[in-house]
Amino acid sequence: MSTTRLRRRAISIPGLLVVTMVAVVFAPFVFGLAALVDVVRRRRWATVRLTGFVMNLLAIENLGLVRTAHAWIIAGLGTRLESKRSRARHQHLEYWYIHEIYRAAERFLDLRLEVDEDSHLTGGAIVIGRHTSYGDAALPALLAAESDPPIRL
Q: What are the residues whose beta carbons fall under 8 Å from the beta carbon of 68, sequence distance 6 or more?
């Protein structure tokens, strides 16, 4: 592993843990403030729901870190990452990650995804997308994983 990657992980992983701890400590205050904003602006709890979504994202990120570390350990501390089982495990982890974020968006933001029956893929396909946001990048992965049979990206 390159020193740049190690340096980046040495900053981002502890940073995520610190942000999560701070968010948990201040959650009662933040949720209270969000509720006050929603009552004053009569926004149907939009700020509270968005705050809940962000807190849920932090939980998913942290659990994803634990699951990724576990997958890395099972892969012989990274020595067998190219094996078929390791690739399948990581693909499942990727699906779990995006599916949990989608479920959180459904729950907190009332997001609904509708796909016309006619538009299901019946054969091979190449999807080339210009990913301009997190959702643009994640949506094809979610749709591919939930298709029957699953499509591998």
A: 93
Residue 130 token pair: 């210009």
Q: Read off the pLDDT band of 110 (50, 70, 90).
A: very high
Q: Give me the pLDDT at residue 133, please.
A: 75
Question: Cα(first)–Cα(last) distance of the chain, in Å?
Answer: 24
Residue 147 token pair: 């298709």
What is the gyration radius of the CA atoms in the chain, in angstroms?
Answer: 19
Q: Give the DSSP letter string of the chain.
A: --HHHHHHHHHHHHHHHHHHHHHHHHHHHHHHHHHHHHHHHT-TTHHHHHHHHHHHHHHHHHHHHHHHHHHHHHTTTTTTTTSHHHHHHHHHHHHHHHHHHHHHHHHHH-------GGGS--S---------SHHHHHHHHHHHHHSSSPPP-
**Rounded distance, CA 49 to CA 34, Å?**
9
